[in-house]
């Protein structure tokens, strides 16, 4: 062996490839990640997921709220168009709800049903002709989980007695009815006129709505087609009685509710207060049911 060959052999490190043309070859390194490195990466990914998932969920719900507001504007436009065609009188919320006839309780602002315990069919309702061009009454994208009458499979339960409204509720006492000045059944049969609404921009017409029903061993969230003011009526006057009205405004869009006003604009509102339990024995706050504004009927009243 020559002196040069011996020197090259002495310089060759373990794992080093043969020298070629006097140049040192690259090291042939075949290592991998250690367990500690994998755990560190997994921990970082978990932290990022914890940060991003709520942000993505909020963004997704914000998108659903925008769609809801668009649908609510179409509903407002339909109700206003109806009033234009009927001597400025709004569509009755539930014109036969207090009827003593066997066929009572069939008509609502959002549809008609052939018998009690069924879902209302919006295609047979008084507003359908005005909503048909925009695709009819649509379900709020965040209300698709609400149960309807058909969800229970037992009409006798009548747990979702107002289903078919798309998750929206109508101001029954002051807009869709005249409970503030008429006695029953006239109060239900005759709705207010546009001239009755003194402050259209501050009077609720529609809002996201639902109702919590205690159906042991759980609580069911069902559709509700009316939004009720905080105070009930006694002889035509809002009165703080116990119990007061059960809240039906549903703050389902990340803590916000979409609200449609009599002048046609839509806003997003946060809950200000609620009652502990409703008339069905269900807890309101965990169900995101309550009111915004002050604890009176100001935002519902047409004065």
Contiguous runs where pLDDT drops below 50 for at least 5 residues: 1-17, 19-23
Q: What is the domain total for the residues?
A: 1
Using the alpha-carbon principal axes, give the shape: elongated
CA distance, first residue to last residue = 113 Å
Average pLDDT over all residues: 86
- Placed side by side, the strands forming the largest sheet appear as 7-3-4-11-12
Main pleated sheet: 5 strands, mixed
Summarize the structure.
The chain has 303 residues and is of the alpha+beta class. It is 24% helix and 15% strand.
Describe the structure.
The chain has 303 residues and is of the alpha+beta class. It has one domain. Strand 11 and strand 12 form a beta hairpin. The radius of gyration is 32 Å and the shape is elongated. The N terminus is likely disordered.
Index terms:
24% helix; 13 strands; single chain; 303 residues; two-stranded antiparallel ribbon; alpha+beta
